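Researcher: Let's do a round of design. I'm pasting the structure tokens now; please hold your answer until I've finished.
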């Protein structure tokens, strides 16, 4: 069995600057070895540890969908040592990867249901994976209607702009984009995600809510979902705790008796309520 701490090499194929402040980039990466590629089977919501030699490693949600044939994608916000090292890479350079890690969004449970997808900031990465997975032609009929509410600080901070336009052109998905501050040309909504959720008021009937975002967004979104009637069992969250090993060995990421890296990062609110922990 392969040592779980040993990264596999991947080549950076493409780097796209996502935001106008140039602080968020999407990396498309491909395995150097066929065997590593064959062993990397993932679902939306999972993450991986990316490493740059001599700089360290850190966890990142997988932003691509497994239905995408052209490599894995990660969208990285420049925050500190490792993320700066990733931002300094050029196409063709080699990074390390360990994964896929953690659990996925509850794909089985979402089948036949309306899915309300609520995201803010760069935490939208794994939600993008989920949306593309559900929209994939061979998967689409398994899932019900989709509602996306996605917010960023300004229009220039929205990720995946071309893809958002394609989603908006479809009739089987309602896409509501919102910004905290408009730039004058903005056609979408203005306001924070919880307020827009309240305004749109999606029905909780036969529906799941899936939420990823900064802690402040989650804090104010959960009461809105509760008031709309989404039960904790059908409210799904992705958590971003600080992590080290990513495989349930170091004890850095636990809430109660659960390791966010191994038992999560995806939990229902009902599960989190049982744990009575800080998240
Ligand atoms: C499951 C999971 C998925 C993630 N997915 C993404 C993703 O898709 N894209 C992305 O850009 N980031 C993601 N993150 C956050 C990312 O792991 C951190 O930004 C990264 O570890 C920072 O590393 P660094 O060496 O650049 O920063 P450091 O030099 O270690 O720290 C710089 C700053 O970042 C803060 N920081 C470090 N780790 C975290 C963390 N886990 N959460 C919040 N702040 C942190 C530090 O407190 C410090 O203020 C994810 C984290 C987790 C746990
Ligand atoms: S990061 Fe080590 S136990 Fe979760």
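Researcher: That's everything. Go ahead.
Model: Designed sequence:
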């Amino acid at each position: 069995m392969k040592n779980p701490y040993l990264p596999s090499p991947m080549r950076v194929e493409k780097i796209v600057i996502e935001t106008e402040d140039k602080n968020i980039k999407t990396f498309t990466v491909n395995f150097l070895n066929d065997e590593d590629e064959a062993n990397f089977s993932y679902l939306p919501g999972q993450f991986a540890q990316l490493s740059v030699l001599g700089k360290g490693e850190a966890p990142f949600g997988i932003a691509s969908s497994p239905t995408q044939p052209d490599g894995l994608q990660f969208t990285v916000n420049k925050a500190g040592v490792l993320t700066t090292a990733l931002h300094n890479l050029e196409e063709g350079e080699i990074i390390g990867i360990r994964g896929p890690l953690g659990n996925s969004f509850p794909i089985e449970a979402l089948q036949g249901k309306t899915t309300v997808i609520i995201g803010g900031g760069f935490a939208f990465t794994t939600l993008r994976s989920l949306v593309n997975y559900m929209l994939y032609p061979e998967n689409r009929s398994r899932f019900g209607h989709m509602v996306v509410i996605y917010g960023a600080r300004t229009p220039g901070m929205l990720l995946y702009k071309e893809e958002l336009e394609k989603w908006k052109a479809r009739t089987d998905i309602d896409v509501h984009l919102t910004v905290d501050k408009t730039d004058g040309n903005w056609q979408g909504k203005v306001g924070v995600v919880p307020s827009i959720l309240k305004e749109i008021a999606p029905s909780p009937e036969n529906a799941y809510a899936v939420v990823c975002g900064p802690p402040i967004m989650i804090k104010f979104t959960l009461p809105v979902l509760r008031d709309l009637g989404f039960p904790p069992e059908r409210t799904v969250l992705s958590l971003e705790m600080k992590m080290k090993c990513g495989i349930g060995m170091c004890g850095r990421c636990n809430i109660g008796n659960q390791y966010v890296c191994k038992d999560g990062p995806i939990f229902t609110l009902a599960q989190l309520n049982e744990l009575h922990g800080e998240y």
